[in-house]
Amino acid sequence: MTTLVTGGTGKTGLRLALLLDKNRHSVLLASRSGSAPGLVPLDAVEFDWLDESTYANPFSRTSESSRSITRIYLVAPTSTTDCLPPMKAFIDYARKEHNVKRFVLLSSSALPEGGPAMGRVHAYLKEIGKEGVWFMDNFANDRAGLIRDEDRVVSATGTGKIPFVAADDIAQAAFDALTATTSVDSDLFVVGPELLSYDEAASRLTTLLDRPITHTKLSFDEHVDFAASTFLPNREYAKVLTALDIKISEGLEQKVFESEEHRGNRFVGKVRFNDWAAKQNMSVWKKA
């Protein structure tokens, strides 16, 4: 039995794939390049959400019964905000043609079921009654170049607080959901162990990097312009992610972290912000 990891060369997908491999689970990376990054010794296959001719590729690669794909980690395409049409097409193909029954979707706590982007995919998985877990990642972006080159972080979160979560913790939560004997079949909120505003995160980076790091607070329109011109592929995607920032400024992420309602379906990561920064990211933030 094989787990297919879409977004296999991305931040959470690659970590998940390595974790599966380390624990002797068969895994196949899916990416547009069709290859694993660098010296990573994992099998990979060409896959593009927006090209249906690539949908059969993973199943052709694992055609032997002992390697058949039974579980899929879903990471939405970043080139479009209308995620449902291509993801629905592939989910339907996987379940109808290859009897895949378990799907794990990476989404966001700020995207409600049925809402924009991954929210509609979340609703569709529930509608078809497939085993699934919907991971609510809080989109804690490191935006390394801005910290390195301009000594600042930029957001539209205001003073809102976020339970920043490390990619390693998301990978662990996904691993648990994919390899469990029975599916959780519910929303699972993956959060970090502490609440921080971007102001507080910048203050901690100031101490760790031994130079002043500031937080530039932007309005919705300002952040859309900034995001679309720097680290996101288009304005529509920038609007979706900026809307998440606005919800954070209104306290949504803090409510998810503190609410008793979500306590039973909350995965609290182990990696604290300072440890994550010191052990994994210091080099990318250093001046050239």
Automatic annotation (TrEMBL):
It comes from the Eukaryota. This is NAD(P)-binding domain-containing protein.
